[in-house]
Design brief:
Number of helices: 5
Strand content: 5-15%
Helix content: 55-70%
Number of domains: 1
Distance between the termini: 29 Å
Number of strands: 3
Shape: globular
Structural class: mainly alpha
Largest sheet: 3 strands, antiparallel
Order of helices and strands: HHEHEEHH
């Protein structure tokens, strides 16, 4: 979901309420989402570069929905290393939670607690799971749609 769409969802939910409604509230939400994304990408790039982690998603070589779904979930936590091995995906968790805590600096009081940052980081990682599920199964779905 792009920044604009997510800002629209936040606007509809009036989240955070301190920013109010209207163009000004929407603009703050949009800018906040863009800032979060920029910080997350910078932190993730710095971590994956420094630690030699490969942030790419690799489609499963297994068959069946459940085995492939397990591979998707595994890749949330484990990534390939440039050296050929595997390691905990510090780039993903450091980027998501780091950006959540950094974004607390511009969020209004009442929406910037440590708990809010933990929820934000977890939602971001959950969104990664959704994107990876899409990347895993969309080629098969697309192939079946084109056969009909």
């Amino acid at each position: 979901m792009g920044w604009a769409a997510y800002a629209g969802l936040q606007q509809a939910r009036n989240d955070p309420r301190q920013w109010g409604q209207g163009a000004e509230g929407y603009g703050k939400r949009f800018a906040s989402n863009a800032g979060y994304s920029a910080v997350r990408n910078a932190l993730a790039f710095g971590l994956d570069s420094a630690l030699g982690e490969d942030p790419r998603y690799y489609r499963s070589r297994r068959s069946g929905v459940w085995p492939r779904t397990k591979d998707v979930l595994r890749q949330l936590f484990i990534c390939r290393k440039d050296s050929g091995g595997e390691a905990f995906a510090f780039w993903r968790f450091g980027g998501a939670y780091g950006a959540a805590f950094v974004s607390n600096t511009w969020l209004p009081k009442g929406a910037n607690s440590a708990g809010d940052a933990l929820v934000s980081g977890t939602l971001s990682i959950s969104a990664d799971a959704g994107v990876n599920l899409f990347n895993e199964f969309w080629p098969d779905i697309k192939k079946r749609l084109h056969r009909k």
